[in-house]
Amino acid sequence: MNSPLLHAIQSVFFPHICAACGTNQLPENAGICSSCLFELPVTGFTQLPANEVEKIFYGRLSLEHAAATTYFTHKSIVQEILHQLKYAYRKELGLQLGAWMGFHLQSADWFSKIDCLLPMPLHPKRKATRGYNQAELLAIGIQQQTGLPLYSDCLERITPTRSQTTQHRSERWQNMREVFRVSKPTAIEQKHVLLIDDVITTGATLEAMGEKILQVPGTRLSLLCFAYTLPH
């Protein structure tokens, strides 16, 4: 039942507010208000060859293109909305940010070359705990904006991994070895795959998954993340 009383009770215990500034002046299906969305620190990397994200993978992974749409810094609007997305069950935020990423992707010269979207997978236990995969939500938003096919069940994380936030690149790479598997390789054979994730720091996780994707015959690989962590 969708009564005014029920709506009032829900608004008290589950307030629908902007994930960044806390205002309640936003559409029902949005997670961030238009003012905060406008303030996101856009990188412009989707239009910039040899950008900082692409350089991370030089000599490590054969990529067609790589980009992130925003800069991540500590105590920033991007950090706050990513925290809300991952830990506060803000599914509508993931869909909205994904559509916003899709808008930036559509203006990229290489957009027309992409065949399909693949979100970075979570381990089933982590997904069950969180209730969703934030990278998949971003990918769904991109699909809704662009119409690109989305294959959410082609990739698997077969081994849970501990947090990597305090690890160096070599430690992260060791942590990610043999964590992923392409469970449905025929779905992506001969396709240009766009791998989607929320944030990139050292690129170790994306590198490990990318290597598995490129083992499938005829695949080409590009990457798109919501945020790029600036070096300290």
How does this model look, in words?
By secondary structure, the protein is of the alpha/beta class. The protein has one domain: 3-Layer(aba) Sandwich (Rossmann fold). The chain contains nine helices and six strands. Strands 1-6-5-2 form a four-stranded parallel beta sheet. Strands 3-4 form a two-stranded antiparallel ribbon. Helix 5 (91-106) packs across helix 7 and helix 8 (169-176) crosses helix 9. The protein is globular and about 50 Å long. It starts with a helix and ends with a strand. Mean pLDDT is 89; it is low at 4-13.
Q: Keyphrases for this structure?
A:
two-stranded antiparallel sheet; alpha/beta; 4-stranded parallel beta sheet; Rossmann fold; 9 helices; single chain
Helix-strand blueprint:
Layout: H1 4-13, H2 34-39, H3 52-56, E1 65-72, H4 77-87, H5 91-106, E2 116-119, H6 124-130, H7 134-146, E3 155-157, H8 169-176, E4 180-182, E5 192-200, H9 204-214, E6 220-229
Parallel strand pairs: 1-6, 2-5, 5-6
Antiparallel strand pairs: 3-4
InterPro entries: ComF/GntX_DNA_util-trans (IPR051910), PRTase-like (IPR029057), PRTase_dom (IPR000836)
Protein name: ComF family protein
Family: Belongs to the ComF/GntX family.
What's the gist of this structure?
It comes from Flavihumibacter fluminis. With 232 residues, the chain is α/β, with parallel strands linked by helices. It has helices spanning 4-13, 34-39, 52-56, 77-87, 91-106, 124-130, 134-146, 169-176, 204-214, and strands at residues 65-72, 116-119, 155-157, 180-182, 192-200, 220-229.
